[in-house]
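ESCALATION

Customer reports they have been waiting on this structure for their group meeting. Please prioritize. Original submission:
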Amino acid sequence: MKKILLVVSLTILFVTTSFAAVNINTASQAELESLQGIGAVKAKAIIEHREKNGSFVAIDDLKKVNGIGSGTIEQLRDLVTVEGDGAVTPAKQ
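Update from on-call: job pushed to the front of the queue and completed.
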């Protein structure tokens, strides 16, 4: 019985973490690249944009990133978030 409970618990843990939204305000290059439609170039552009301009307030703010359009945003809408701690302030120039 304990083995079954352990297997069920681990399965639930795995499923919930695999469906966790990626926070575009705190995500690493690798985390961003794990998103469908986001490769190395777009991930780098997202990071550079948030470092220069600060945190994204809404998912639609991704339109401000070079190379990301409405189609990509709609594809990502259920996979990303801007919520939580980890606000990024713009870099000083």
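Sent to customer with the following note: DSSP finds four helices and two strands in the chain.
Escalation resolved.
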